[in-house]
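TASK: fixed-backbone design
INPUT:
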């Protein structure tokens, strides 16, 4: 458990169902031509990463990537997934926008590309009974899953807007970084006052620990939509295996459409997979509540992500004022969408050929 006073920007960085269609023939890529290629895919056992969870469980990813060996890694947070990707141990990751932004800035635009959105919504600041406003968090303990993660930046941005410092003392908020399961235990023991979380942990804290939603993040963005999950690929994989990236994104789109058309079945599937991965099934009230707050999709929401990048910089998450020009490559996604008769995704001026 680590307490946040005011870390340097450098310290933060260091921590950091559709119509039928023809499947393209996938060719071997790069140095993997002598053997079947593998795709190393990372995601979380979270409802907000439901597209990856369901896509793997239903076999959609494997079906759309014939001849490709899929290897999955489950991560506890975005910064840890980014570390694996930048170390060359991961090809594709579902993660929050802040780790993606940090990876882009750290590598000066050479390490990763954002290729699709994954989910909107499903994040909130929850507090224990008796705390009815953000101002009442002064002098109290608040957790986030990890330093530099999406919820960590969201919390710091909220506190900054309210003029509340982070650190020790009666007028500041003591921010702690801890595993989600530890946060739940701390709430049950009345040793933690609030936490900024993504689903299903928002609902678990409400349903199992008596917390209540203090700030639903949907209330902080126009139209209630903001990027919770995005799909990021390593630049090396994107260049070597463009057909596989497109096929994966086609599977992503197909899985989103299936979830939207089969919400109850999808909730049951996600719950079973969370139990398989994490060892414990969610209560029906928890999975139902969590699913109701998440919108699954492929919209990258790049204008929103650009604003999030400004928040990341303002709260110390990146050392330089961000320039996201070129962060996105939506060409593979738009080809997959066109093959399904769907409208193309807009890059908001942040695509490879867009305007910064």
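OUTPUT:
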């Amino acid at each position: 458990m680590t307490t946040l006073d005011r870390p340097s920007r450098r310290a933060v960085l260091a921590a950091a169902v559709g119509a039928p269609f023809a499947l393209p023939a996938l060719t071997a890529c790069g140095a993997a031509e002598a053997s079947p290629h593998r795709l190393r895919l990372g995601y979380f056992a979270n409802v907000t990463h439901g597209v990856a969870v369901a896509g793997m469980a239903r076999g959609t990813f494997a079906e759309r990537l014939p001849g490709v060996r899929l290897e999955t890694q489950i991560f506890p947070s975005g910064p840890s997934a980014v570390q694996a990707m930048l170390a060359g141990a991961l090809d594709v990751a579902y993660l929050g926008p802040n780790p993606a932004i940090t990876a882009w800035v750290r590598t000066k635009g050479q390490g990763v590309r954002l290729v699709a959105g994954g989910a909107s919504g499903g994040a909130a600041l929850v507090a224990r009974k008796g705390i009815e406003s953000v101002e009442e968090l002064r002098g109290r303990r608040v957790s986030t899953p990890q330093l530099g993660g999406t919820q960590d930046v969201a919390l710091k941005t909220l506190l900054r807007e309210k003029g509340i410092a982070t650190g020790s003392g009666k007028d500041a908020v003591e921010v702690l970084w801890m595993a989600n399961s530890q946060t739940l235990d701390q709430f049950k023991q009345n040793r933690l006052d609030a936490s900024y979380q993504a689903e299903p942990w928002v609902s678990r804290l409400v349903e199992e620990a008596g917390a209540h939603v203090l700030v639903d993040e949907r209330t902080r963005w126009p139209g209630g939509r903001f990027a919770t999950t995005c799909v990021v690929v390593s630049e090396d994989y994107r260049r070597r295996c463009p057909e596989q990236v497109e096929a994966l994104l086609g599977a992503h789109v197909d899985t989103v459409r299936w979830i939207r058309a089969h919400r109850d079945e999808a909730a049951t599937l996600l719950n079973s997979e969370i139990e398989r991965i994490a060892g414990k099934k969610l209560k029906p009230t928890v999975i139902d509540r969590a699913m109701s707050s998440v919108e699954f999709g492929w919209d990258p929401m790049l204008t929103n992500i650009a604003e999030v990048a400004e928040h990341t910089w303002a709260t110390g998450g990146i050392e330089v004022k961000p320039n996201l020009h070129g962060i996105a490559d939506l060409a593979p996604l738009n080809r997959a969408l066109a093959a399904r008769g769907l409208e193309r995704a807009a890059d908001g001026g942040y695509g490879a050929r867009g305007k910064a």
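COMMENT: Residues 123-224 form a domain with the D-Maltodextrin-Binding Protein; domain 2 fold (CATH 3.40.190.10).
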